[in-house]
Amino acid sequence: MTDFLFEPPVTPGIPVEGEQALYPVGRIFCVGRNYAAHAEEMGVEVDREAPFYFTKSPAACLASGSVLPYPPGTSDLHHEMELALAIGAPAFRVAPEAAMDAVYALGCALDMTRRDLQAAAKDKRRPWDLGKDFEGAAVLGPLTKAGETAPLGAQRIRLEVNGETRQDATLDQLIHPVPALVADLSRFYHLRPGDLILTGTPAGVGPVGPGDRLLGEIDGLAPVTLEIGAPA
């Protein structure tokens, strides 16, 4: 038995519809600018050649239904509604036509972003970590097994803040579709069970503040909800 100097972090887990056991979260890969309208609203060119990625740590995980204290260091916290893929089998250098064999489940997720810190990093050509990877930055809804969902296509993806629709699109608007994302990422990593891929957000991202209630939905999946609390 290995002894540690300090207690190791607890592995975050996500409920899976129909299962008592939780899905353990390891790495979190996020796809940037994967909807053309979102890229345009951010003032950048649409890049259709290849996807690009950033990461969030397991410490960023937060369960759906939680209260997220308004994060430190920002005055411009934004919501980003996304489809999450939960990997359930090893995948390395897989072809797009075989990529879905590695996807165990799908879910709704929120990529919360300290937009002012992200913008400052962009201006200085620095990494986005401060803007994207912080406690509560990856809000994860319950997962639905891939075999129990309809084939991915024109499912609606939407987000409401206090009952007002902010984001509303369909999954077929993804620039790089799900099989292509899994295949591309597997060129650079040995994907394994526990890896999550957040596939990008539609247009309509915007600020939220204390007291706001968020509801994110994708057709056929359990929703993700979040309340923004007072600063801790």
Order of helices and strands: EEEHEEEEEHEEHHEEEEHEEEE
Question: What is the number of independent domains?
Answer: 1
Low-confidence stretches: none
What is the name of the CATH topology? Fumarylacetoacetate hydrolase, domain 2
Structural Rg: 17 Å
**How many H/I helical runs?**
5
CATH class: Alpha Beta
In terms of structural class, how would the helical and strand content be classed?
A: alpha+beta
Mean pLDDT: 96
Could you give me the name of the CATH homologous superfamily?
A: Fumarylacetoacetase-like, C-terminal domain
What characterizes the major β-sheet? 8 strands, mixed
* Helix content percent band: 10-25%
* Anisotropy-based shape: globular
- Second rung of CATH, namely the architecture: Alpha-Beta Complex
Strand tally, please? 18
Q: Kindly report how far apart the N and C termini lie.
A: 37 Å
Strand content bin = 25-35%
Structure description:
Strands 3, 4, 5, 8, 9, 11, 12 and 15 form an eight-stranded mixed beta sheet that branches. The protein has a five-stranded mixed beta sheet with strand order 6-18-17-13-14, with no helix packed on it. It has a three-stranded antiparallel beta sheet with strand order 10-7-16. 13% of the residues lie in helices and 32% in strands. The protein contains five helices and 18 strands. The chain has one domain: Fumarylacetoacetase-like, C-terminal domain (Fumarylacetoacetate hydrolase, domain 2, Alpha-Beta Complex), CATH 3.90.850. The longest helix is centred in the middle third of the chain and has 9 residues, at 115-123. It is of the alpha+beta class. The mean pLDDT is 96.
